[in-house]
């Protein structure tokens, strides 16, 4: 290994992150970042760019900012957006873009440093760019061949992929305008710009970075290879990145629907506060707890995810008492932002996303079936609330206008404003029959009279015995 000059070029490693840490006890990202930090020289830095993750990723990477050479920032979701945001904060002479599931080995790092400092003689004219060889690891026996083809193709074409850890001089990166803002093929688009501007400065680092083969393992090695070649060919012949992103999403195996339940942790004084004159502060928390657990029982056996607001990991584990339900943390912002985040995320893995609040006490599994069917026909469907909001929403695509900030969230005009927004957009939604949700003392009295809430609700879910009884019987909704 050659000795680096005293005026070695500095490197900023930029990593886009989105939903890489499912929970505090399922964090493989932190040790990878810590290993990466161990490679740095004093002049280098790591910039982690979170795309408004809905799991524990932001918490995990914020904890890493105690290291003086690490920055953690947030941006809108999207690799191109996130990597450009990180590049804007970078101070290094060279930008190295590393995907969260790609590992930069010590061997690859030191070969990279040797190559760039050998090729560049001045710090003011950094035009170098390139990529590493890649080794794909996973279950399929074909993955070594996948990596070999990727490396050979890019060595001949001077077109790299994000899995190969692209790098480029900071001045050159800004000169070509950074990553084009597009949902797919942003890596290829950047390489084309760099090739047009500085083809002779291309470097192919033969030492390999290591990337996860989960995409090939999940969907089949040869099926994935053929798909990626077809997408690249279509991109070459002019098909738009947005259309390619849609095709790519359509090839994935998707669930028929996902139900996303939004819930606050039942902390006294923080939930159902309008009902305090009837129930008191502790009673409101107990009722919110009942509503959430009864909703989960009602949806037992379906693909349900829980979007939480407040409460610690230990508190939620205790509340759920062994129920296996995937949980995400609601992002910051108004309710529309939170709902849109859930819709965008779950449409990646499901044909239909249903958003539901736990206080929709009249909502049954038959209503769920009707709502899903309506969404299949009309793309978006609602169950309005009697108080002017809506208790459930189902959609097959994301309509950002439905989640806009100007809608007066939490008021009795939400449904009316949503109808107006959809009409302005020319979208025909299906509105099913209005139902009761519980926000005021009178709502609870009505729900008990109609049999939607049992008289002894306060005695439900108070111990493991009652939890077992409800799980075994399926609750009152069967």
From TrEMBL:
InterPro entries listed in its UniProt record: Glyco_trans_2-like, Nucleotide-diphossugar_trans, Trfase_1_rSAM/seldom-assoc, Trfase_2_rSAM/seldom_assoc
Main localization, broad class: membrane
Domain Glycosyltransferase 2-like: 12-164
UniProtKB keywords: Cell membrane, Glycosyltransferase, Membrane, Transferase
Annotated PANTHER family: GLYCOSYLTRANSFERASE, GLYCOSYLTRANSFERASE 2-LIKE DOMAIN-CONTAINING PROTEIN
Subcellular localization: Cell membrane
NCBIfam families recorded: glyco_like_cofC, glyco_like_mftF
Keyword ATP-binding: no
Domain of life: Bacteria
Protein name: TIGR04283 family arsenosugar biosynthesis glycosyltransferase
């Amino acid at each position: 290994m050659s000795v680096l000059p005293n005026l070695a070029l500095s490197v900023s490693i930029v990593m886009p992150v989105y939903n890489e840490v499912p929970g505090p006890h399922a964090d493989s990202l932190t040790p990878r970042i810590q290993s990466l930090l161990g490679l740095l020289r004093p002049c280098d830095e790591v910039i982690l760019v979170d795309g408004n993750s809905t799991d524990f990723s932001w918490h995990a990477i914020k904890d890493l900012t105690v290291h003086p050479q690490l920055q953690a920032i947030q941006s809108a979701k999207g690799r191109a957006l996130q990597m450009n945001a990180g590049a804007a904060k970078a101070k290094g002479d060279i930008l190295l873009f590393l995907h969260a599931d790609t590992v930069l080995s010590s061997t690859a790092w030191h070969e990279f440093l040797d190559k760039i400092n050998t090729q560049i003689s001045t710090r003011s004219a950094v035009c170098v760019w390139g990529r590493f060889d890649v080794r794909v690891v996973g279950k399929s026996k074909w993955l070594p061949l996948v990596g070999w083809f990727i490396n050979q193709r890019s060595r001949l074409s001077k077109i790299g992929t994000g899995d190969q850890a692209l790098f480029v001089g900071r001045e050159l990166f800004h000169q070509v305008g950074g990553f084009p803002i597009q949902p797919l093929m942003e890596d290829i688009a950047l390489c084309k710009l760099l090739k047009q501007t500085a083809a002779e400065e291309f470097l192919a680092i033969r030492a390999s970075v290591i990337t996860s083969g989960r995409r090939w393992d999940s969907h089949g090695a040869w099926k994935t290879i053929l798909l990626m070649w077809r997408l690249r060919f279509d991109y070459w012949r002019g098909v738009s990145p947005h259309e390619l992103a849609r095709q790519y999403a359509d090839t994935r195996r998707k669930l028929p629907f996902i139900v996303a339940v939004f819930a606050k942790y039942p902390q006294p004084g923080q939930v159902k506060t309008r009902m305090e004159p009837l129930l008191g502060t502790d009673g409101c928390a107990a009722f919110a707890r009942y509503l959430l657990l009864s909703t989960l029982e009602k949806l037992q056996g379906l693909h349900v995810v829980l979007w939480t607001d407040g409460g610690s990991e230990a508190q939620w584990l205790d509340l759920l008492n062994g129920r296996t339900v995937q949980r995400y943390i609601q992002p910051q912002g108004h309710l529309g932002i939170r709902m849109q985040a859930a819709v965008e995320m779950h449409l990646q893995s499901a044909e239909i996303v249903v958003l539901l609040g736990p206080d929709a006490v009249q909502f049954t599994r038959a209503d769920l079936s009707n709502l899903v069917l309506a969404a299949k026909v009309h793309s978006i469907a609602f169950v309005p609330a009697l108080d002017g909001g809506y208790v459930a929403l189902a959609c097959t695509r994301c309509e950002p206008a439905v989640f806009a900030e100007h809608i007066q969230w939490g008021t009795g005009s939400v449904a009316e404003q949503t109808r107006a927004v959809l009409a302005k957009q020319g979208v025909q939604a299906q509105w099913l029959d209005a139902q009761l949700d519980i926000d005021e003392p009178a709502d609870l009295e009505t729900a008990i009279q109609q049999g939607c809430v049992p008289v002894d609700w306060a005695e439900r879910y108070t111990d493991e015995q009652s939890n077992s009884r409800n799980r075994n019987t399926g609750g009152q909704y069967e």
